[in-house]
Design brief:
Layout: H1 21-29, H2 37-40, H3 42-46, E1 52-60, E2 70-77, E3 85-91, H4 98-110, E4 119-124, H5 129-134, E5 155-156, E6 159-160, H6 168-178, E7 189-195, H7 201-213, E8 230-234, H8 240-251, E9 264-265, E10 268-272, E11 275-278, E12 295-300, H9 310-329
Helix pairs in contact: 4-9, 8-9
Length: 331
């Protein structure tokens, strides 16, 4: 959950004029460090080295208010086996979405060992550490990492998508998967679950900020932030039974977001209980479109709900992963 910054991002720059380097630099200088990646996240990796390889896959540059660059790490199953199904879990693509980071780590700490006989895991818990520390959606260059995993963009069913420029965060992940994990092609991934949150600040801060950055006027579309957990389903790989299993598992931990009066969740059509469907993850540049895994999704937890605690948000992420894995085990 985000807290107020000293300067609201959407007040920066000249109305109707896209930001240039001056505005981006000023925006970065006003992002206040609120927590420590080095204190909160990295020490927990040390305790996992008994059963997982901890691999540094990149070093992201510090900003001028940081003391050091940000090493980013993946947790990889020891004794990787070609006889097991390969599972990719990512978190912290948006640094302000806290349960994405700690849900991924918590899964490794308390549940992953139950699945090691059947699955190989590659888990990247905190893809955007600068944004984690500032509780931000964007990286330090004011770019949304979760729109940067397909910077070329494409047109699907006559609908044009415009992902954002490649980021250092997304490039580090992509290069890692292509390079060090060369033996695992996209087609070999069975499942990819990307852990996210939808917060009140999406509407109060980040959407207005994006409009200001792009030189546009923010016109609220009336979409309410859904109160509850939901999943994002790629239209090209619906797998309704898999989604049903994950929603059922999460419902034992926290409440599922209901559709609004128009049958939508956050402006998108609901394909089944607690699930929205979008045309193509890859076209949007989403991290969840990074692979062609048959089973792939983006989770969305609502941490601002009066009915959910931070612990429940983390538990919901873990429950979703377990529900998805349990379904795959039964195939």
């Amino acid at each position: 959950m985000s807290t107020a910054q000293s300067i609201e991002a959407f007040t920066i720059g000249e109305k109707g004029k896209p930001w240039g380097r001056k505005e981006i630099d000023y925006w970065r200088s006003t992002r206040v460090k609120q927590r420590s990646y080095f204190d909160d996240v990295l020490p927990r990796f040390e305790k996992l080295k008994e059963s997982f390889d901890v691999i540094q896959y990149g070093l992201l540059p510090k900003s001028n208010t940081d003391e050091e660059d940000f090493p980013v790490f993946a947790l990889r199953t020891r004794n990787w086996s070609d006889k097991k199904k390969n599972i990719l879990i990512t978190g912290g693509v948006h640094g302000y979405e806290t349960s994405g980071v700690f849900g991924a780590i918590q899964f490794v700490e308390i549940k992953a060992k139950e699945y090691l006989e059947d699955f190989n895991f590659l888990i990247l818990p905190c893809i955007s550490p600068w944004a984690y520390e500032r509780v931000q959606r964007w990286n330090q260059n004011a770019v949304d990492p979760n729109r940067s995993f397909n910077p070329e963009g494409e047109i699907v069913e006559g609908r044009s998508f415009n992902p954002e420029a490649a980021t250092e965060e997304s490039s580090a992940v992509i290069n890692f998967l292509i390079g060090e994990m060369m033996t695992i092609s996209n087609n070999q991934w069975t499942c990819h679950i990307d852990l996210h949150e939808t917060t009140d600040t999406d509407e109060t801060e980040f959407r207005p900020a994006k409009a200001a950055r792009n030189g546009l006027i923010h016109n609220p579309d009336g979409e309410s932030i859904p109160d509850g957990f939901y999943l994002v389903q790629d239209e090209t790989s619906p797998e309704p039974k898999w989604f049903e299993a994950m929603i059922e598992s999460v419902s034992k931990v926290t409440h599922i977001a209901p559709a609004d009066d128009q049958g939508l969740i956050i402006g998108e059509k609901v394909s089944q209980n607690g699930v929205i469907q979008i045309p193509c993850n890859k076209s949007l540049g989403l991290c969840a479109g990074l692979t062609s895994a048959k089973y792939r999704t983006t989770t969305e937890v609502y941490p601002d709900s009066p009915k959910a605690t931070p612990a429940q948000c983390n538990d919901a992420q873990v429950a979703c992963i377990c529900g998805g894995l349990n379904y795959i085990l039964q195939l």
